[in-house]
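Thread amino acids onto this structure.
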């Protein structure tokens, strides 16, 4: 068994080196490997092995399915909303604050995308946020945050939302990078098409 493990590990390392060289050869002079590129190489090398060989090797980085399963199983205390009644229930049995949040969560669920609802996020200066949805980029191993702004036509709500977005930016969490926004007004509610179009653009990094 020891010899089999050694041979399997050598094949795994060989594939890693080959993919790294191929990756470097495809880069332009002004480009460089990102952390996401490296995780992708680690994963591709591992998953190109047969299932029998995967059992024998010790991967350099935790495979994405194992990593994602561990992340998805995290538990935390649900957020208690002062004065905000929760009557909307997702397909996973979560009590949510609005029909739009349920629509987003159910779309994730139907598309087999792991998510956390209102998972605690500790920011600088011990500032605690509860993003509506937290997702995981399986290649960069960094969390993404989806905030739904439900009543942007309300001046007070919109002002508070802008302050919140500024705090995200102060913590290096930027829109269209790690922060995804959807929004609606009383006359223009969120729709399923918009949700799916956004997910279509990022699905490759979520599972």
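Threaded sequence (207 positions):
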């Amino acid at each position: 068994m020891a010899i089999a493990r050694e041979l399997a590990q050598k094949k795994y390392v060989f594939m890693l080196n080959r993919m790294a060289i191929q990756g470097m050869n495809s880069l332009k002079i002004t480009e460089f490997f990102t952390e996401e590129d490296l995780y992708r190489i680690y994963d591709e090398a591992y998953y190109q092995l047969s299932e029998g060989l995967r059992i024998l090797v010790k991967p350099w980085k935790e495979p994405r399915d194992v990593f994602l399963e561990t992340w998805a199983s995290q538990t935390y205390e649900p957020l208690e909303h002062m004065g905000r009644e929760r009557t909307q229930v997702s397909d996973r049995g979560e009590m949510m604050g609005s029909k739009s949040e349920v629509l987003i969560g159910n779309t994730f669920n139907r598309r087999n995308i792991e998510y956390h609802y209102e998972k605690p996020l500790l920011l600088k200066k011990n500032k605690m946020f509860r993003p509506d949805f937290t997702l995981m980029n399986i290649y960069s191993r960094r969390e993404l945050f989806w905030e739904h702004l439900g009543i942007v036509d309300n001046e007070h709500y919109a002002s508070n939302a802008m302050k919140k977005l500024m705090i995200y930016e102060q913590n290096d969490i930027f829109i269209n990078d790690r922060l995804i926004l959807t929004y609606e007004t009383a006359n223009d509610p969120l729709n399923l098409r918009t949700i799916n179009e956004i997910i279509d653009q990022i699905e490759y990094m979520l599972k």
